Amino acid sequence: MSAVGLRRIVAATLALAAVVFLWALFQPFAGDGGDPVRVSIPKEAGVGKIADILDERGVVSSASLFELRATLGGDRGDLKPGVYELREGMSYGDAIDTLVAGPSPDIVQLTIPEGLSRREIAPLAARAGIRGDYLRASADVSRINPREYGVRTGPGSLEGLLFPATYELRRGATARTLVSEQLAAFARNMSQVDESYARTKNLTTWDVVTIASMIEREAQVPAERKLIAAVIYNRLKQGIPLGIDATVRYATGNWQQPLTRSQLAIDSPYNTRTKAGLPPGPIGNPGLASLQAAARPARVGYLYYVVKPGTCGEHAFSSTFAEFERDQQRYNQAREAAGGQSPTNCP
Description:
Elements: H1 3-26, E1 36-41, H2 47-56, H3 63-72, E2 82-87, H4 92-101, E3 107-111, H5 118-127, H6 134-137, H7 146-149, E4 166-170, H8 175-190, H9 196-200, H10 205-218, H11 225-238, H12 245-252, H13 261-264, H14 288-295, E5 304-307, E6 315-318, H15 321-337
Antiparallel strand pairs: 1-2, 3-4, 5-6
Helix pairs in contact: 2-3, 10-11, 10-14, 11-14
């Protein structure tokens, strides 16, 4: 083959490759896309992150080509965060146009932090525009089969099963709809929890959720979840009252102010200072990490813990009362030096 012929073949190949590339980039005959996909674009997400999200959800076929198309169109900085109703296999142009226009005002996003009780969730739902009485909807125990969870006595509400997450709901959604989504999310997440070890200790799913709800309130450092779970298991085994003040806060509704002597002495089955064993049910709604810790605690002999001064919520753990007294004295001295305030150091 002559040099001229070879050059012609190379040129034709390059031209064909360019046509294929431009066809893939501009998708001249792309349709409207397939099934609906709800996508959440975080605040401050750059075009690269957005492209990855759309690619992972199947909205576009290539993150790289989406980013290039947005760049060529001058739209890199115009893609807006929010919740979108997109479609599988959309064209890059249609996806970009939608994100430039902004999210639909018909969708609201509600983030429920881990550990909150349903009474604390209710005002969040109201502020998000959720219609109806959330407390009433979350008290409807007819929506579950208590025997599935090993509930020994009928629960008074769905506390513990209202999974904390970010929910994307149509504007004007009802409290019953939100509760339905929370129950479904709980079921999905609980299916990932290995309860085999808890069962060897004669603990039911309801017990695991109850323990997880206490862990969620007590642990500020993720690595301590399993250690706090171990303390609870060890105290249950030895018949020692759990002494977890968060259960008293649940009984009194006092989550913010220092507990008074009368509150600490309240005659309630949720007072784990005076009542041995687990409280009747969860004191909030735990996330997956706390559920997993509650089902499989660390294998340690700790019986006590107290906040470690100068840290952001870390605890000093101990196995003997003498060690606990030492740690508690350090805490009290640091608190006194701080003028009676908690001697923690959180940024």
